[in-house]
Design a protein that fits this description.
Helices cover 56% and strands 12% of the residues. By secondary structure, it is of the alpha/beta class. Helix 15 packs antiparallel against helix 16. It is elongated.
Amino acid sequence: MSHQPKLTAENQTELEELEFTLEAFQGQFLLIFAQCNYDTLRSRLIQLIQESSPLDIHTITLHPHDTALYQRIQKDLQGQQPQALMVLGLESVQSLEKMLASADLVREEFRNNCPFPVVVWVTDSVKSQWMQFARNLESWGVSSQFNLSLEELVRFIQDKAAQCLEDGLDLTKTKWLELQGELEAAAAELQLAESALAPAIAAALYSLLGICHKQQADYQKAIDYLEQALVGWQELHRWDYQGLVLTEIVDAYFCQSNQMPLVIKSNRQQHQIPAKVKDYLQQALTAFNQAQRPDLIADALGVFGEVLRELQDWEQLQDLAQQALAFDQGRNRPDKLAIDYLFLADVALAQERWQEARKLAETALKYTKQSLPLTEVVSRGEAFGRQSFPHRQKSTYPNASPNPLGLQSRCYWILAQSYRNLGQLQAAIAQLESAHNLSTPLTNPRLYLEILCNLNELYWQTKDYLPAFKIKQEQQTVETQLGLRAFIGASRIPSPVGTIGGRVHILDRAHVGAPLLAPEITASGREKDVRELVERVIRNDCKVIVIHGFSGVGKSSLVNAGLVPTLRQTTASGQCIIPILIQVYADWLQDIGQQLTAALARQQIQITQPLDSNDAILEALRQTEQQLHMVLIFDQFEEFFFVVEQEAAQNQLFRFLGGCLEILSLKVIFSLRRDYLHYLVDRPGMSSISNNILSKEVLYPITNFTTAEAHSLIEQLTTRSHFKLESALIEQLVEDLAGDEGKVRPIELQVVGAQLQAEEITTLVDYQRSGTKEELVLRYLAAVVQDCGEENQPIAELLLYFLTDEKERRLLKTRAELAAELKNLSTVATSQLDLILEILVLSGLVFAIPDTPDERYQLVHDYLVSFIRQQQEPKTLAQLNQKLKSQREQILLQNLQLMKATRLKSQFLATMSNELRAPVNAVIGFSQLLLRQRQNSLIPLQVDIVQRILNNGKNSLTLINEIFDLYQIEAGRLELKLEKFNLVKLLRATVEELCSLAEEKNLELDIQADLQNPNVSNDSVRLRQILVNLLSNAIKFTECGKVQVKVKEISSEHLVIIIKDTGIGIAQEDLEHIFEAFWQIDQTTTRKYSGTGLGLAITELLVQLMQGTITVESQLGVGSTFRVELPRQVPADAPCKYS
C-alpha cells in the first residue's frame, strides 16, 4: 500500500526556508544539505519544491559506481548554468568515502564554476561521512532537517511490513540497503521518543530489519532480528506471520552455511547446516498448517526443498513436493510447478531412477520456459537482491521463486546426470553445456561449480582434453575468486573483477565501496606497494615509474590485481584516473589506440578521427588532458625487446612516449625484470625526466617476501578459504621456502601451496611424508602435463624441456623449432602439438609471445627451469639412448643388406663382364680378320660395313670396361699397383698412340715437359688411363687449332699435368656436372659427339684415389683447360682403395 506523508509544521517551515535560500543565492555557489532519512518524505518534498518554486532546478541522481562528484555534475550539466541544482543518490554510492575526499580536494572548483545553489539530499549517515571525509567543503554548507512525526514513523513501519508480508517487495540490493537505513533511522527516532513500541510494531520492525540484513548477506544479524520478530508474532498468535518469519530464518541459516567456503573433497562440495534448521522448518510447517495456509507451504518449497536436499531427507522432500504439486496444479503457476517437478526430479535422481528423473526434469524445464518472459528475468550478470515474500511472485528466498534461467540450469544438470548414468555421454555433455551457458557463479556458485566439475570429467572421459582443461581452469578461477581456493599456482593473481565463462563478474561484494584488491595482494602486504604507487601517480613531480624486480616476485600480479583496479577507483585533482594497460607489443601503437578509444567511449567522450597513428593518439590525449588523468602502464616490458629487436624500431616507442610525457597530467609506468633495466637508458624522447630514469625517484623495487610476510600471507589465505593449516606446518613451510637466503619467492609459495591444497595436506606430519618442497613442485608440474592427456604426456614433458637449456635459461622458440626438435625423438601430429601448446599456454606455465612471422613460446618463470630439467633430463637421455640404439640397429641392418647387395652386384658385374666381353672380343677379332683379307674377297661397301662393326665392337668393349672400372672404384675394389717409372716417357707414349686421331682432324698435338726429375711413384696403367681419357676428350671436342699437354713441378713433392685445347668449350652452368657419371654436354638423341659420359667420372675418381685433385676451366668458343695435381710419390700408407 502507498501513503503520502503529510508535512508537519516543522517540515513546512524548513521547506519554506529552503525555497527562500535558493532564491536569495541566485548567481552564487551555496552548498545546502537537505537532511532526510526517508525516501517517501524526500520524494514528497522534492515534488513540492518543483511545483512551488519559480526557479529552473536541475536534478542529478548519482549512480552507485560514480566516484567523482564534481566531474559528474559538470558532465551532466554539459556547460549549462541552472538556477539551482539538486543532487540525489549519495546514500547508494559504493565508493562514497573516495567521492567525498576527492570533492574536498577540488572544493574551489565548486566555488569558481558552480554559480548556483546546490542542494545535496543526505541521510544522517551520509551527513556524518561528509563531516569526516569532506570536512572543509562541508563547513561551507548550511543544513535543513526534515523528519517524520512519530505517527508517520509508526505508519511507515506498518505499511512496509504489510507490503512485505502480504504482497512481497521487489527491490534491488541498493534499495534494500536504503530501506535498511530508513528502518534503522526510524528505530533510533522511536527510541529517542522513549515511548514503548506496541508488540505488533516491534514485531513488524524486527521482521523488516531481519529481511534487510539478510539481503546484505549479514545473516547472523538477520537471524537475531528475525528470532525477536518470531517471539512477537507468537505472542500475537499470528500463525501465518510466524510461518513466514520461520521460513526466513531457515533461509538465513541455509544462506549462512552456503556463505562459508565449500569443503572441496574428491570434487564434491559439502556444507554443514545447523541441526536446529530442521526444527525451524518443522515449526514453520506447523504454523502454516495452524493458519490453514497450504498456499504458503507450497510457496516455501523453494527454501525447504533446498534444505531437505542438502540434508538428503528424500522422503520428506518427496512428500512436500507432491503436496505443493497438488496445490499448484490447475492454478496457472508455471514457476511453482517448475519447482515442484524439479525437486521430484532431485528425489528420483538420488534414488537412481534415471529414466523417471529425466522425465521429471524435462517437465520442470517445460514449465520454466513458460514461467516468465525473458525480458522480465533478472540479468545473469547483475547481482540483484532477493525479494520478499515467497507466497507471491516476489520472494526474499534465493530459491523460492528464482528466475527461470537458474531453474533451467538445474534442470539441464539433472538431465545430464540421468543421461550419464544411462551411458549416453554425448547427450550428458550437451545438457551440461546448456546448463553452463545459463548459469552464473554469482547466483548459485555451488551448482555452477558442480556443472564445471561434471563437464570436466565428461570431456576428459571422451578424450576432449582442450575443453576439459578450459573448464577446469574456469572452475579454479571461480573457486579462487569466491575464496574457496587459497593458492593459484604459477598463474598470475587474478583481479577481483574477472571474466568467468565468457562473462565479466565482480565476485567480491563483501565490502561495498572497498577497493577491488585481490585478497592475495592485501594479505601479502603488497597493499602498501599499491598505495605508494598510487601516491606517485597522483603526485605532479612523478612522471615516470619503473617497477622492477627479479622473475617470480609478483610484478604482473601487483599491476593486474592491485594497481590497475585501485587506479580505476582513484581520482587525482578531481579527475578520474584512466589506466591503459599494455601487455602485447607486436603492434603496441594499435593496442594503445584501441584501448584509448574504448576508455574515452566509457567516459562518453567523442573522438573525431580513428586513433591509429602517433599524432592522432597524442592529439586525443591532449584534448582530454583537462578531463582525465591518463596512465600508460607497460607490463612485462622486457617482452617488448624480445619482439622489437631493432634499436631504431624500439626508439619509435620511446619517441612516442616523449610526446606523451609533454602532457602535464599523463604518467608512464614500466614493469619489467631487473636485468632489463639498462634497456631504458639513453633513449630518445625521454628528456622530460632528464635521462635519470634509473634514479631512486623513478625506480620502485618489488622484492621477495620476508618470512614474516610469507607467514602472514599463508595464514590469511588459508583462513579465508577454510583450508586450515597447522601452525607447525606453516612454520616449517616458511622455513623451507626461505632457505638460506631468508626470503620467500612469491611464485614458489603459490606453487607449493597449490600442491598442498591439491593433495589436501594440512598437518606437519602429512607435509613431511609428502617429500621436499622440490618434490611438491615437480608434482605440480606433472599435474599440468597430465591435463594434456595420458597419450600426450611424454610430448608435453619434452616441450617444456626443449624450452630450457643446460645453462638453466628460458629459451624463446617457435612452434616450428619445437616440432623439429620433437621429430628427433618422437612422431608428433600437427593437431597433437597444437593441443599441447595451447594447454600449456592456458595453464600459465608457458607464454605465447607474439612475433613476426611466427609467435614464440617461453616458460613463464626462470624458477621453473631447474625443476623441469630435473624431472625430464633422465627421461630425455633415456629416450635419446633408445633412439640411438634403434638407429644403430637400423644402420647395422642396412649395412648387412648393403653388403649383401654389393656382393650380388659384384657377382653380377663380373659374370656380365665375362659374358659380354667374350662375344664382343669375338666380333672384334673376326672383324679385324676380315679387314686383313679385304683385298682378296671384300668389295668397298663390305669393307665399310666391317669397319663399322669393328668400331662399334671396340666402343662396346670400352663401355664394358668403364662400367666395370667405375663399379670397382666406388665399391673400393680397385687397388693401385704402385711402381716407379718415367712420367715423361709415359706421356710421350700415350700422345704417340693418339696422334692418328689428331692427324685425322689436322690438329697440332704439342707436348711440353718441364721436369727436373721425371721419375714418379704411381700406378702407370691407371695414370695412362687418365691421360687417354683427357686427351681423347680434348681431341674429340676440338675441330681446329691444337691440343697442348704440359707437365711441370709445382714443388719438390707435387707436379701438375695440364691439358689445354682450343675446342668448343663448356658453358658455366654445365661445369658443375662435368664429372658426373653418364653426363654429357650434348644430351640430344642426334648428338654430334659420341661417348658414354663415364670417362671424366672415372678420371676424377682415379685422381682422388691417387691423393690428387682435378679441376677444369672453360669458356664457350675458346676452349677448355684440365689441371691434374698429383703427388710425385703416392704414399705407401695411403688408402689404395676408393671410399
